[in-house]
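Re: [help] complex structure
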Amino acid sequence: MTMALIETVNIGQKYAGQYILKDVNLNINRGEVFALIGPTGAGKTTLLRLLDLLEVPASGSVYFDGMDVTDNKSLRLQARRRMSFVLQKPVVFNMSVYNNVACGLRWRREKEATIRQRVSRALELADMAEYINRNARTLSGGETQRVAIARALAVAPEVLFLDEPTANLDPISTSKIEEVLAHIIGDQKTTVVMATHNMSQGQRLADRIGVIMNGEILQTGSPGDIFSTPQKKEVAEFVGVDNILSGVIVNRDNELVTIDIGGNLIQAISDYPIGEEVHALIRPEDITLAPRKDASSARNTFEGRIARIFPVGALVRVEVACGFPLLAVVTKRSAEDLSLAVNKRVYATFKATAVHIIKRWN
Amino acid sequence: MTMALIETVNIGQKYAGQYILKDVNLNINRGEVFALIGPTGAGKTTLLRLLDLLEVPASGSVYFDGMDVTDNKSLRLQARRRMSFVLQKPVVFNMSVYNNVACGLRWRREKEATIRQRVSRALELADMAEYINRNARTLSGGETQRVAIARALAVAPEVLFLDEPTANLDPISTSKIEEVLAHIIGDQKTTVVMATHNMSQGQRLADRIGVIMNGEILQTGSPGDIFSTPQKKEVAEFVGVDNILSGVIVNRDNELVTIDIGGNLIQAISDYPIGEEVHALIRPEDITLAPRKDASSARNTFEGRIARIFPVGALVRVEVACGFPLLAVVTKRSAEDLSLAVNKRVYATFKATAVHIIKRWN
Amino acid sequence: MTELWEGLVTAVKLIISLDPEVMEIAGRSLAISATSSTIAALICLPLGAVIHSNKFPGKRTLINIVQTLFSLPTVAVGLFVFVLFSRAGPIGGLDIMFTPVAMVIGQVILISPIMLGLTISALSGVDKAIADTAISLGASGLQTAVITLREARFAVLAGLIMGFGRAISEVGLSLMVGGNIAGFTRTITTAISLETSKGDLELALALGIILIVIALVINLVLNRVQQR
Amino acid sequence: MTELWEGLVTAVKLIISLDPEVMEIAGRSLAISATSSTIAALICLPLGAVIHSNKFPGKRTLINIVQTLFSLPTVAVGLFVFVLFSRAGPIGGLDIMFTPVAMVIGQVILISPIMLGLTISALSGVDKAIADTAISLGASGLQTAVITLREARFAVLAGLIMGFGRAISEVGLSLMVGGNIAGFTRTITTAISLETSKGDLELALALGIILIVIALVINLVLNRVQQR
Amino acid sequence: GQQRLKVATTTSLYDTGLWDYLEPIFEEEYGVELDILYAGTGIALEYGMRGDVDVIAVHSKAREEQFVAEGYGVERVPFAYNYFLIVGPEGDPAGIKDMSPEDAFRTLYEAASSSFISRGDDSGTHGKEKAIWASAGYDYEAVRTAGQWYVEAGRGMGPTLLMASEMQGYTLTDIGTFLSYKSELELVPLVEEGAILLNVYSVIAISPEKHPGTNIEMANNLIAFLTSPQIQELIGNYGVEQYGMPLFTPCAGAEPQS
Ligand SMILES: Nc1ncnc2c1ncn2[C@@H]1O[C@H](COP(=O)(O)OP(=O)(O)OP(=O)(O)O)[C@@H](O)[C@H]1O
Ligand SMILES: Nc1ncnc2c1ncn2[C@@H]1O[C@H](COP(=O)(O)OP(=O)(O)OP(=O)(O)O)[C@@H](O)[C@H]1O
Ligand SMILES: [Mg+2]
Ligand SMILES: [Mg+2]
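Output below.
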């Protein structure tokens, strides 16, 4: 039996008589980075609080390093001393930044010299060294978040829990913190469990992602899996598969199937039989736009008119009406090169392999 | 004289004897959306608090709708009743969601019927209608943020201040909130002042952006201006111009100048004279990568090897070593098509117009 | 020990039989201390909010002084009020000595520092962001004070209960300026003191128990109100 | 009014001349109430933290009872202790009646509900996230209690000061179980009551002023400690 | 509202219940609200001097005479008397039973082993105690500091008795308080005879010249009431029902001599 570092068996939590987390079975392996993603109110924070042993589940059990820590107080404290947690809304104690970061170490009865050294190191990692003597209550939002991260790092946890760790940080601070995390993940083999709504952060840092919605884990898998082959419509929507088309499989030739989307035929790769009602998922960045129909190997080409164009950072999102609405993403540069404009006629092309098929109503 | 709705004259703020905001002169015009962007600790929150009349500046004056409201208590209250503010770390009062949202209206002595109607409307806008009877303290991070937004909207402010309004929200909620904001901006001509570290949010929503760093406003301008023609190196770095090359203008032919970057020559458009020490700024998305040198109109083409590749969402960032480091961004699809890999030889191409020149040490 | 038991039995008997004399002094005790608590609360809640929410030089010192007055001995307050309102005193003309009015005045002086100090310390526990949020939503100074007090309601209520408790349980002041006049200024505590000096310890204990029962009822009522 | 002025003058004279009798009873007052406050604080701070941080059925009721005991009349506590420790009482053999020990015991009973109740209400103002953060950083139950108390230190201190103030200012209890014995159990408040009954109002007022001065000093010292 | 008459009385007189007994009779007869203030001798005199009451009823001859001499009181009118007692533990370790008061005090002083609990509060009873020490030939200051056995309680009569009982010591008490406390005490009367033990209660109306605001008319009514034959009879029988013996001997305005 290979043992997960943290294992939950059917845990649930309820508030005011209502289950807001139901039957979660999750293994967190030693050394992995696990990201929980999901919309507001999905239960991310609740689940992290159960895993960090801050709360006792209403049902089910939690195992840490092979021990049942569901409700044994002293085991829980022992286990908790091997973890630390950066809360979603970080609070600092009304004392200096130094003392804030030193707290966890003091509680573990470390020597003053060790404490001094570890606090300095943690503050340097979080780029907060110059604030060491400030009262932590006077810090700005982002500074507070970085102190909270330093405080959690200082105790050199085996498991680090992070709840939206960079929500209050600008892109530069975010990448610094991500570097620090990458570093401790690589160097110290720290297990990391994070909740984030920033999916690209999940993608960048995580080994495995769990998608949670309405208190249930809908899918876990590698970032690649989650992003390219979501198993449910909700997951697909959430991870940015903007094209979700409902249809029926009307033909198949080995693995190549033809799907009827309200009269338009799309080709894709799938195991489902003829007659199956499915969703066809296509990531907008997998769709190419061209002024002419060209002879590419792509199986699917549709002619249409541009319905809407809107820029997003370095990219442009283009909505094409081609019997059904298709959303494509192109770079600003290509948009300029193709001189895309509303009402312009274009050809939207995508490969059969870029279409991911899932069964409907599952 | 056209009058700005809010005008600050040399305002500054100090804490513990130190100025953390210095001589800020800012006009917020009626009906515009103004975004403050800047790194952690830059002074965004401090400035918003001064504009919202939550704090009195240590120096300088604040005018609202033509009146000096720097320190007249009753004028300040009157002005404040025409504004509302969503704090960076939103707190809710320990009462139901309904009562939370109703507070501002009660304080304005609105009729109960009006209150009921406006609260419902605001909660619907923020997609929180179903939580109306919950104690607001039991909400999740994102839900709390949405209640705070509803609460601020309910009073139908002339000026709405938002401090990182979507920091705790997932992408779907974020776009919902952005839609709501776009709606009230369009419909009700509300003036909006927001602080955000989410630059694309600034870009999407703002008419004008102010970049603040270290307590000083370094540049204000349209999103386009800020993103394509930053006037200082710090601004450039912050808005994601990842290629900042130092060089000297060595030649010019009308507007076309040649810049010597440590031996490599780059062509660009600029007014600066020969001998001027400058930074050449190139956005990574303006750089094309190709396996062969092709005969495009682009003035600058450099041969190099790929040093690093890392994916970011639907994009891939590619670091090319071509005498100097160049960072390019391409779509995943192009990366696959070009089969980019570390150490592979590529040609990086960019137009002379894609290079933005600023003077050094300004 | 038997006295304790007998005291309890007597208390229960007195309560059940609604002994008119006991009911009368209990009612008077309650009326006087409720009046003084209400007056003190009306002064101290707003004043506490003002002191809490403003920065001014000497604030720390002011709070120190208020807290020092937690130690005001009842009899000293009694002396003070006596000296002030006695016929020979500066405002003796009012002729309120040895009336419930004098007792109320004395109790207000006694418990105001308590209510004020505890209100301020209750407010000190409220996140500063609460007041900021209220102000930013257009609350006036008073409205901000109300919402802040509301957020600290548990601790604020504890302060009010403490003030009321001090008022209803004090005796030195009531004896001094009330005079323990039967049917006019006799309260439960002065009656306890009388019974004690008369040697009827059971009755004294029984009255003590009745006092606590009254306090409990008031407490439950206030808590009910707070929870609404 | 002249009495007030004369009282003040007398107080200043007594303080300046370090009048030995006054110094003695002042010292005793301070010693007794400091002892009982310390004992009560050692009981109530941890107990308050435990009650605050645990959910259990009847918690609300427990707090109601504690707050009700804010109204404990000193003389009732005095009677209770008297009945307990008197020769005829259940633990009369200890022979501590009319000694400072009995006074300390009585004061601990009197002020424990106050310190406990105010500790709980001080803690109620602390953001729950503080305790969560401490626990998540590996704090044990005790360590969490300490940091939470520390966050509420201003209000917690106010509670301790209130308890001390109640102890040093109470008189009914000290009279009842101490006996106001000159040179042994006489404290400032029992002396005030004696001087008042003798009709020496100036001296009584002067003693009251001295009491307040002592309270002020204690207060400043505690505040200094808290601010460190 | 209604006319009020304020009387400040010593605790020892009030605690016997005599005032509660007489109050309704007087109120009925004169249609006035009688306010009996419960206070120590010292503070009762203070109330009188300040004009906060209309009448005082105390039992401290020397101070009463001074009060009248200084013009605060109109006239000192004795209306009843009884005797002080020296009480002590049943075993009487000092052996003072049936001695004269002076001899009893001398014995206690010499033995210096059994506690003597003094009121020590300048009350009428305390004044009497001092008078006995003087009559026995001691300087009171010397007695006060004579040793541990001399305990200054600084309290009212009832508590002082309780304390004496607790400490199994001796004390001087008025008979009324002793009888009403008897059930709580492990003390018995040891010395009951001796002219010096005489305890006279008198009433004094506050002089309207000093304090024009006082109700001299009604004060005189009260004094007349107390010294009237019917009331004197009631006073003479007061306590028989409850204690099996009268607490007071009426003396209708005349200073008793024995
Ligand atoms: N009371 C204070 N004493 C000292 N410095 C302070 C105080 N309050 C704020 N500051 C400092 O002022 C600077 C500006 O703070 P502000 O909250 O305005 O930053 P911000 O731009 O909103 O940052 P963030 O994005 O992290 O919220 C910060 O560096 C902060 O540490
Ligand atoms: N005490 C409570 N009573 C009722 N519902 C509660 C309580 N606490 C939490 N909830 C609900 O449980 C759900 C999950 O909350 P949780 O904080 O885990 O969400 P989350 O996924 O972390 O969301 P966010 O991204 O907004 O932080 C929310 O809808 C929340 O309203
Ligand atoms: Mg959350
Ligand atoms: Mg900020």
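Residues A 44-45, 88, 163; B 140-141 surround magnesium ion (ligand 3) (CB under 6 Å).
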